[in-house]
Structure formats: structure tokens, C-alpha cells
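CORE FACILITY INTAKE
Project code: CF-77B
Contact: R.S. (postdoc)
Sample description: multi-component assembly, two entities in total
Requested service: structural model of the whole complex
Turnaround: standard
Below are the sequence entries exactly as provided by the requester. Do not edit them.
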Amino acid sequence: MYAKAQTCWTILRISLEERLVYRGDFALGTLMRFLPIVTQVFLWKAIFEAIEFNAAGAAGRSGDETIAGYSYHDFIAYYLLTMVGRAFSSMPGLASGIALQIRNGEIKKFLVQPIDLVGFLLLNRLAHKLVYYSVALGPFALVFFLCRGFFPGWPDATTLSAFFASLVMGFLLGFFLEATLGMLGFWLLEVSSLLFVYMLFSFFFSGHMFPIDMLPGIWGQIVEALPLKYLAYFPAAVFLGKVQGQELAVALWVELAWVAFFMVASRVALNRGYRRYSGFGG
Amino acid sequence: MSDRPSYPRVFLTFARNSLVRDMTFRANFLIDAVSSLSWMLMNLGFYELIFMSTAEIGAQSGWHKYEFFIFLATTLFINSLVQAFFMPNANELSELIRTGNLDFALLKPIDTQFLVSLAKIEWSSLANFLFACGLAGYSLWRLDFRPAPIQFVLYPIYLACGVAMLYSLMIALSSASIWLGRNQSLYDFWFYITNFSRYPMEIYRGTFGTPLRWAFTFVVPVLIVVNVPARLLAKPLAAENWPLAGFALLATVVSLLVSRWVFQRALASYRSASS
């Protein structure tokens, strides 16, 4: 038990040191990632100005217009919060890295060494995220401070706890979902096209591009049923009080169920993949 | 026999070789084309969603649904051309510098900027160009007015100007990797900066918007890349637009000259990476 904990600590420490090498570039990159938000601020401002202008002309009123229940300020707060959600749930290079290790045979080291691939990758990713948050905290705090006027204020303790729970589960869901996709490399070898399709769907239907409750009719219902919404939309909607009470409790349980599902799916895929795997050469 | 290479013939050879390579991996070519089309369709879906809530983008800006779709088609025309002709080469350039393989390009009896800018063509990116033709045609048919013939003549000229301005920015940024060794952040910078060009310039107004609009029009002219040609086709000709149209021509020439200067300065600082 002690030896196992020591192994985990060593893996985490090495990964942390590895990630801290390019911290300056990392901080600059994080700050630049907020640039597209600037265009979103102006785009939604222009949209709401047009709506308010037409409403004022038609009914002599303006200022309280909403789209799918979101005011202009809600939209901007939503986009900023999805960036926090994505900071937890996005796993750049995880699935493609697993598929690459399967293809070039590097994966066999996990067959001969007493280290679990999923556990190793989880610790590695945890280290990456810890470094990311420590370096990105400055840029995030700066942007959120500058944009504080867009937020309705701090939510109550229950909502805040649900928000943090959704972020942590978002991290686990993102990890196990992408790990499962990467394990498909045991059967497909090349998964880049599949990953592109996943990235495409994830970008639009996780709520990264727009709040998914904007989608009308059957489209909205389909996207609501997918696990992708927990990667960006759900934490932001929780913070903004769009999901509350019983609905919030149910949604958190459903998210936990999705995490458990992909945890089992990645484990099954790994075990079956190992049985299927053949390594040749030195 | 002249020692000077025939640039059009060399370019045609590049185009043919790239097409042969793309056709060798036909399934990959199709997947690439379908992927970029799907990306575009999803974007179009997003804007459809926006226009379900509003009649135009910006109060009295004139960017109604089909005017904006012409704007979107213009973005697609320009981006697909840049992605097909220049993007793979700009990516390759920093790799050539890092590995020292730029030596081979320098030794060839042809202009180095021409060689490193056009050696590889990504034909699958032109799928979006075809999609843009359809989108522009349909949107023009749905517009409330019919553009004059002169607008159809000027439109491709300003599209070319837009491509030239983006190319200038791209080649200047990628040649900066000669000084920096690696320039991932600069590439990210390119994507984030060009993000500003994706919307009508009227949306940038107010305390922060007006200086931003000014900077991205007159300092780094990314805002006029799409805005000038899109406005030219989507809206009736108006005398107040001519100064900006004139400035776009000037900005194109200056961008090309500055990028050429940056490229040559960077080349002068190049030290081969290998022994």
C-alpha cells in the first residue's frame, strides 16, 4: 500500500516538473485564449442592441430582452464560465497520445511494468491540470475581475458546491471519455478522423459555442441527453442558476452515472485491447 | 535559354505534385474535405440560431441574415484559399528552420519566399470554397436588391486583396521563427487575431470597441480583409465606402512589402541548424 502511494507520488512529481518547464509560454497562451471572448462580447452586444432597437420601435420598451432566458450579461458570463468548465474537462492530446502509443508499440511497457496505464495517465493529467490552474490562475483572475460587471454576483453555498462538484466530475468525465476513445486505437490503429468528429461534436454540443438550451425542439432534446453537455454547458448553467433544486440534484447524479459508465468502458476497452494487442520487433 | 525559372510553370508543378499526393490517399482527402464542410455546416447552424432571435447583427447595421451569409461566404472564400495555398507551407517553414532543412530551399535557383510559400497545396481545403460559392449564390438570390455588374467585377479583386493581407501576416509571423526557434504562441496569435475579422466591423464600437476597430483597421488591417469585399457585394454601392475600399488597396500593397522585408531580414539572420 505504502509502495503504491509512493509510486503514485513519484509519477505525479515527475509530471509536475515536466509541465512547469514552459510556464511563461503557458501563462501567455492562457491569456491569449481569452481573445475570442472579446469578439463574443461585441457580437452579442450587437445582437442585443438590434433586438432592443426593434423591441423599442415595436412596443416602446427596451433593456430586458433575453434569448432562451439569457440576457446579454448572462451570455458573456456564460462564455467566461464555459472557459472554466473547459479548463477542467478538456484533455488535449490524451486520446491521440494513447492511440499513438498503441500504434508505435510504446504501450507494451505497461504490459511488462507493474504500472496501470489508466492510473498513470490520470496522475499525469492531474499534474498537468494542477500546473495549468496554478499558472492560469493569474490570467483567469484578471479577466474575471475585468468582467465582474457581467456576473449577477456570487451564488449561494449550495449552488457553489454543485458548481465545484460539476467541475470535478467534468474533469473525470472528460478524462475517461477521451481515454475510452483513445483505447479504440487497439482496433482502429488510426483514430485521428474519429477524434476530429468527436472534437466537432464536442465543440458545438458541449455548449462551448452557445448555450445548448438555445437549440429548438428535437435538437435540444437530443443534445440534452448526451454526456457532452457536462463538459462545458452544465457547470456554467449551474453557476448562473439556470439549473436548480430537484433538477440540479438529478443532473448531478446523471453526471456521476456517466463518469462511472466511461470509467468502466475505458477499463473494459483496455483489458480487451491488451488481449488483442500484438507487439513485434525490439 | 534563360536562367530565370518560369514561375507559373513551377507553380503548376507544385499544384500537380500536391494533387498527385492527395489522390494517393483518396480516403484521407475525402475525410478532410467532409470534415471541413461539417465544421462549416455547424457554424452555419449557429448563425441560423442567432437569426432565429434577431433580424440583424447590430442595430441598423444592415447586416441582415442574407447580407451576413454573404459575409460568411466571403470569410470562407478567403480562408479556404489561405488554407489551401499558404497554411501548410507556413507550418512547414518553422519546421524547415528548426531542422536546418531551409538550407536546401536557399540553394535552389528560385526566389526563396516563392518556394517556401507555395511548395505544398492542400486541395481538400478548397471544399469550403465550393461550399462558399453555393452559399454566396443562394444568399445573393435572397437579397432584397440586385448588385450592379461593377460589384461582381470588384469582388474577386478585393477577395485577392484579403488573401494577400492574410498571407502577409502569416509569412511574417512564420519567418519570425528564424529568430525564436519555435513559434507556437505566434501561431496561436495568428488564429486569435484573425478571429476579429470574422464579424462585421460595425460591431466594434464604444469605449473599447472603437480603438479596437481602429487598431485592426489601420495598424494590423485584419478587419478590412473580409469586411471590404463582403460589404462590396452584400450592400448597394455607397460613396461613404470608397475611402475604406481605397485604403484596402493601399493596405494590401503595404502588407506585402512589409512581409517581404520581414522575410528577407529574417533570412539574413538564419544560421543553419545542422553541421
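Facility notes:
- The longest helix of chain B spans residues 149-175.
- Residues 195 and 222 of chain B are 9 Å apart (CA to CA).
Invoice: internal transfer
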